[in-house]
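User: I'm putting together a small comparison set for a docking exercise, and I want a reference complex before I start. The sequence is below, and the ligand is oxa(dethia)-CoA. Could you produce the 3D structure with the ligand included, as structure tokens?
Assistant: Of course. I'll restate your input first, then give the structure tokens for the complex.
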Amino acid sequence: MTARAAVVCGLGQWLPARAVTNDELAGELDTSDAWIRSRTGIGARHVLEDGLGTSDLAVEAGARALKSASGLAVDAVVLATTTPDHPCPATAPRVAARLGLGPVPAFDVAAVCTGFLYGLATAAGLIAAGSADAVLVIGADAFSRILDPEDRSTRAIFGDGAGAVVVRAGTPDEPGALGPVQLGADGSADDLIQVRSGGSRDPFRATTARQADPYFRMAGRTVFRRAVEAMAESSQRALDRAGWSVGDVDVLVAHQANLRIVHALADWMGLDRERCAVHLDRVGNTSAASVPLALADAVAGGGLRPGHRVLMTAFGGGLTWGACTLTWPVVEPH
Ligand code: UT7
């Protein structure tokens, strides 16, 4: 019996209206457009308006992905996010309810910037096991809510947004079928990307004796190196599983953390830099939304067309990483 594959059949994206330029940041912090552009490739990022939360982003992107999938009924929702609306409960059930999906199972996956690939792997597992026939996978994050307003190294990079796909049961040889998602993690380095306070180890109510730190912290330079190594290694494993060589890849959709990371990865792999999807110049690092947003942007810009062979890869806190191949199907992003 042929295994049931997860096949991409819908793609949606959403960005908050407000874009913050580098010059605007430079008005607040000791930074400059020249520094941010030359060190990261980022020109602007979007910020969610006050009073809204990650579920608002996720609902917008999810609704568009469902529309792109011609309204196909989904029987599960997986939301990849590190910035849930509340510490408890998960945000996915609220998203499913607001999308009018009825009592379908809905849960969050927390793998920071690798969240979307972890979400895809989870959806593919639900489909392969026969637990679901179609799954809405959303990557949504509102990092503006956890950044230290005074930290120029993270404020320059991160932005808010959401991207989503619908995957349905199909066969491994059809366009849109996900190859096996190659995932990895190294929790011994969990302190390289972390929000230290507010969880069970350091709850806010227990921090009277010492200073709480509610903000996202990242050891940028070490993370940079680990990101390139891990994405290169998992990408090679994904290519091996697909029986592809590097030269077969038409479009590399790597996590949009930093243009220098994307290019270092391409160089390491021996892939032409021209084949890299680049969206971060307009949106920065949108964490779990980064890969689906870059996919949608590449399709809209004409750089990603049906039949193209795509390699997706991401890296994030945890540490976590992953990669996956697919041949792009006929899918119009909404
Ligand atoms: O999404 C999960 C994965 N995340 C990533 O992959 C991010 C990986 N890291 C990076 O992208 C880069 O490390 C950063 C963009 C965060 C920083 O770039 P860098 O070239 O690695 O700089 P650095 O951290 O080594 O810092 C060099 C200098 C420092 O100043 P001093 O200590 O040398 O005086 C920083 O304070 O650059 C300074 N700096 C800035 N200067 C102006 C850091 N951010 C800024 C800024 N504007 N926005």
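Residues 220-242 form the longest helix (23 residues). The mean pLDDT is 96.
User: Thanks, that's exactly what I needed.
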